[in-house]
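Example 3.2
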Amino acid sequence: MSIAQNLINIKKNLPEGVTLVAVSKTKPVSDLRQAYDAGQRIFGENKIQEMAEKWEQMPKDIEWHMIGHVQTNKVKYMAPFVQLIHGVDSLKLLEEINKQAQKNSRVIDCLLQIYIAEEESKFGLDEIEVENLLQSTSFKQMDNIRIVGLMGMATFTDNHNQIKKEFTHLKSIFDNLQKLETNNCQLNTISMGMSGDYPLAIECGSTLVRIGSSIFGGR
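Structure, written as tokens:
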């Protein structure tokens, strides 16, 4: 099956209001062009340098999403063009994104990464840390970022019930945080679900799914 055909098959099964991020990390620009020609306009990368190189080569109507863990010292390379940063897990990182966005006269949208898995290796904030961050004075003074939602990654397991429990937990945190909306925090996006579990994620309230191997094939 071609990349174009894979995209068509996935999109026809996505409910209205669910956004598809094509995870194009490690894939050559030729693959991205096939997806682009099939109508895909949102691509997710997990390495800033690789994303910047692809941004230079690809059409400029693409939305680039940074889906990997972000190192503070690399933010400046993507600040001119990145549309959404998925994995924001500290105030320090937000401060750097705000600073670099300001230098580029932009407002950059971000998702706060919530730790929902039972694995130690995953990054993220817990419920209390998120509330504290959103209520902090330093956050409220950031004019060049906007928190538009939350992101979470479920435990890597075949246990359907456990994944469902984790996704449901993220949705309940999202609902609970609605009360903290401010000028730079308007929550409308829940990013959860990848190639293996996105139908379940959508069932649990996901509005944005990250799909790579089901579009581009395995790495």
